[in-house]
Specification:
Layout lengths: L17 H12 L5 H7 L7 H28 L29 H15 L1 H11 L12 H28 L9 H33 L2 H6 L27 H17 L36 H4 L12 E5 L2 E5 L1 H6 L3 E8 L5 E10 H7 L7 E6 L8 E5 H5 L4 E6 L2 E2 L9 E3 L12 E7 L3
Helix pairs in contact: 3-4, 3-5, 3-7, 4-9, 5-9, 6-7
Length: 449
């Protein structure tokens, strides 16, 4: 084969970067079918750096809250006891610390924010994707190694947030159709998304700031549809080459997205309130109408689903306490004869709903003293429940010693119902609801943690 004629070569194709440039040009000549149609078919004059950056700023404020509250919720399950899922996360393990019992509404706040914000930002995420979707079909995908890294981070960012939202929404709807473990996928997926988000923010933050400063928000909100004009061409190619006529102004686009988020918030926030407002939480299937009476509040797992038989919770039921070389066995009458303590405490579920009720029972620290461990470092609680991830739980020392931590026997002045854990259940301030073990059969108090 004859050597290439130097006189016909583009100087840009020689030298150190010649091979990569030839690669980008070869890719450009072999465009996949349909890419031109996609990129030219999205002609909205609203699309451009300013509107994209407005949506991006909203996500930049909310997404870190969703990520941080999700990681805090994982920490609330006390992963050092092997009861946070997934149990083995390798070098992604969070630092161990004692989850606090105060304020008592802490887990209610973190889990409510995690689920609530995750739902509310869905319209913003979709709007942000709409504003940049032609760029996802650019060909060639990149024209330099730096752009390859940028596009890879974008792929992980878009794929990550769609995966987290989709699986999260299915989980709170109890639609377990994944074919994989939700907890494991959601945890590792969160780290992949977070890494991609950090890279994307580092790369794009200067342009976001520049774009936001390029136009007055007040002026945009006052501009009618007829006066809406495309933005000037931008380096990222967000502005369409041949924009069509506007059908809605930027004010209308922001109102549509904001209104969608407000609607989702209105259909979700009732999950955190008792009374009639709970019935407005149409997006949450659990406990919209939990019934009336003292036990009329949501249930995560019913006695039937737990497989607990009536004879196991009847007159033959006994609570076994162990610790310090001492074993004590108590029936419900003996527990009711002990000093009773009443506390008004919330209980919050991983699906995002919460409720506040008045609980009465025996302090856990009194039971620890009875078992011969006056200063417990931890307590292992066992349930009559035979199956499920949460049929047992380990409590931290501070959780056992808190004066409002109870083995609850009654709620709102009445005996616990079977679905709420009769004859006895655990209630601890700021503890995830699934660790407020129901149908308790035994507690092992440990002095050494």
């Amino acid at each position: 084969m004859p050597a290439p004629d130097p006189s016909t070569q583009d100087p840009a194709d020689t030298g150190r970067y010649g091979a990569p440039r030839r690669l980008w040009r070869a890719l450009d000549r072999h465009r996949p079918p349909g890419t031109d149609t996609v990129t030219r078919g999205w002609r909205s004059p609203l699309r451009g750096p300013w509107l994209t950056s407005v949506y991006g700023l909203a996500l930049l404020v909310t997404l870190p809250l969703v990520v941080v509250t999700g990681l805090l919720d994982y920490a609330a399950y006390a992963p050092r006891f092997g009861q946070a899922f997934p149990t083995d996360v390798g070098w992604l393990r969070l630092p161990y610390f004692d989850w606090p019992t105060r304020p008592a509404w802490l887990f209610r706040l973190t889990q409510g924010l995690h689920v609530g914000l995750g739902i509310v930002i869905v319209p913003v995420v979709l709007a942000k994707l709409w504003s940049v979707i032609p760029k996802l079909f650019d060909w060639p995908p990149a024209r330099s190694v730096a752009q390859v890294l940028e596009r890879l981070s974008l792929l992980l960012l878009v794929g990550g947030i769609l995966f987290q939202i989709a699986t999260g929404l299915l989980n709170i709807q109890y639609a377990y159709v994944f074919g994989f473990d939700f907890y494991t996928a959601h945890y590792f997926g969160a780290w992949v998304f977070t890494a991609a988000l950090v890279v994307h923010v580092v790369l794009k933050l200067p342009r976001l700031v520049t774009a936001l400063r390029s136009r007055s928000p007040g002026a945009e909100l006052r501009t009618p549809v007829a006066a809406t004009r495309p933005e000037p061409p931008d380096p990222d190619g967000l502005v369409p080459a041949r924009p069509g006529p506007p059908t809605v102004g930027r004010r209308g686009a922001l109102a549509l997205v904001g209104g969608g988020s407000l609607l989702l918030a209105a259909l979700t926030v009732g999950q955190s309130f008792d009374g009639p407002l709970r019935r407005t939480a149409w997006l949450l299937p659990r406990g919209q109408d939990p019934g009336g009476g003292p036990n009329g509040f949501p249930v995560n797992r019913s006695v039937a689903a737990a497989g607990v038989r009536p004879e196991e919770t009847g007159a033959a039921w006994r609570l076994t306490l162990r610790g310090g070389g001492t074993t004590a066995t108590l029936d419900r009458a003996a527990l009711l004869a002990m000093p009773q303590h009443t506390a008004r405490l919330p209980i919050a579920c991983v699906e995002g709903w919460s409720t506040v009720q008045t609980w009465t029972g025996v302090r856990l620290r009194d039971l620890a003293a009875l078992a011969g461990v006056p200063e417990p470092a931890s307590a292992h609680v066992r349930s009559l429940e035979r199956t499920g991830l949460f049929r047992q739980a380990t409590l931290q020392g501070n959780q056992v010693r808190d004066p409002d931590s109870l083995l609850a026997l009654r709620v709102n002045g009445a005996d616990l119902s079977a679905d709420h854990g009769f004859p006895a259940r655990i209630i601890v301030p700021a503890l995830p609801g699934v660790h407020c073990t129901k149908w308790v059969s035994g507690i092992d108090f440990r002095a050494d943690g």
